[in-house]
Design goal:
about 280 residues, alpha+beta, Type Iii Antifreeze Protein Isoform Hplc 12, three-stranded antiparallel β-sheet, 3 helices, flat
C-alpha cells in the first residue's frame, strides 16, 4: 500500500514537472516575441546608388527597445528603392538611407536636392595625387590672366570655389575607398551658380584641386595673388637682415676721464687678484 502511494506521488510529480516546463517554455517564447520585431537588413554589402532587390535583403529579429527609427519590417516595401549611401552587410536598411520613391539608380540618386553634378578633367597633380576621393571636400583654384585695363594681362591664381563635395572619380562613387587613385576625371557636387563658375573657370584658365579637411567648413575668402605680388613678397623675405647673435665676453666698464678733455670716454677693466683690486683704463 505504501509502495503504491509512493509510485502515485512520483508519477504525479513528474506530470506536474512536465506541465510546468511546457508552461515556462511557452511563456518565455511569448515574452521573446513581444520583446522583438522583424527588421529588414542588408544580406550583402550594398553600394550607394544601387537599386534594391530581394536577393540583397533579409529579415531578422531585432530587439524591440533598440529598433532604429525608419526601419522596415517587410522586404516588399523596399523593392526597387535606391540607396543613397553605402549599406554594410547586417546593417538595418533605414528610410533615411534611401532616395525618394521612383528614383532611378546611379549617381543621380545620391546628388543632394538642389545640387548638380559636374565633371572636370584632372591629372595626377591637379587631382591631388589621387587623394581627392568620393566623399572628400576640395577647393577649386583657377590660374588665368586678368582682363582689367589696369592689370596689363597680369597672371593671377584665385580660389573660385570652396568646400566642394567629390561625388565620384572616373566612374567610381564608392565612399568607403581610402586608397589614392589617380584618374583623369573628377565629378563634383555643385549648386547651379557654382556650376556656372566652374564652367567659366575651366575655359579661361587652368584648374587645380586643393584637398581640405572634411570637417572644416570655413569659407576660403582670399583676394588671389598675382605674379608680381608673389615675387615682391619673395624679395622682401630675402631682403630681411639676418640678426647676428650677441657676442659674449668680458664686460668693459666705460667711465669718463677726468682730464683736459672731459667729454672723451675711456675703456676701463677692473682686475681683482686675491685681496688686490686694480682698474686699468685705455
Amino acid at each position: 500500500m505504501k509502495n503504491t502511494r509512493a509510485v502515485v506521488m512520483l508519477a504525479l510529480s513528474i506530470v506536474i514537472g512536465i506541465i510546468a516546463a511546457f508552461t515556462a517554455a511557452g511563456w518565455m517564447s511569448q515574452q521573446g516575441a513581444l520583446a522583438s520585431n522583424k527588421v529588414v537588413v542588408a544580406a550583402v554589402d550594398i553600394e550607394l546608388g544601387s537599386r534594391l532587390n530581394p536577393q540583397m535583403l533579409m529579415v531578422v529579429e531585432w530587439p524591440y527597445a533598440s529598433t532604429p527609427a525608419g526601419a522596415f519590417g517587410d522586404i516588399k516595401n523596399l523593392e526597387d528603392r535606391v540607396v543613397k549611401t553605402n549599406v554594410l552587410r547586417g546593417e538595418a536598411v533605414l528610410d533615411a538611407k534611401l532616395a525618394p520613391v521612383g528614383t532611378k539608380g546611379g549617381l543621380s540618386a545620391v546628388i543632394a536636392e538642389g545640387k548638380r553634378a559636374m565633371t572636370v578633367r584632372v591629372n595626377d597633380v591637379v587631382g591631388v595625387a589621387g587623394f581627392a576621393l568620393p566623399g572628400n571636400y576640395v577647393d577649386v583654384v583657377v590660374n588665368t590672366q586678368q582682363d582689367k585695363p589696369s592689370s596689363d594681362g597680369k597672371q593671377i591664381s584665385k580660389i573660385v570655389l570652396d568646400h566642394i563635395l567629390v561625388l565620384a572619380v572616373a566612374q567610381e562613387a564608392n565612399r568607403d575607398e581610402t586608397k589614392p587613385k589617380v584618374v583623369n576625371a573628377v565629378t563634383l557636387e555643385l549648386t547651379p551658380t557654382e556650376a556656372e563658375k566652374l564652367d567659366l573657370a575651366r575655359s579661361v584658365g587652368t584648374l587645380s584641386l586643393v584637398l581640405r579637411n572634411q570637417v572644416d567648413g570655413h569659407p576660403a575668402d582670399t583676394a588671389g595673388i598675382t605674379k608680381q605680388q608673389l615675387l615682391v613678397a619673395s624679395q622682401d623675405h630675402a631682403a630681411e637682415p639676418v640678426k647676428e647673435p650677441a657676442k659674449t665676453g668680458p664686460k668693459r666698464i666705460s667711465r669718463k676721464h677726468n682730464a683736459a678733455t672731459p667729454n672723451a670716454e675711456r675703456n676701463c677693466v677692473e682686475i681683482i687678484k686675491g685681496n688686490t683690486r686694480n682698474v686699468d683704463c685705455f
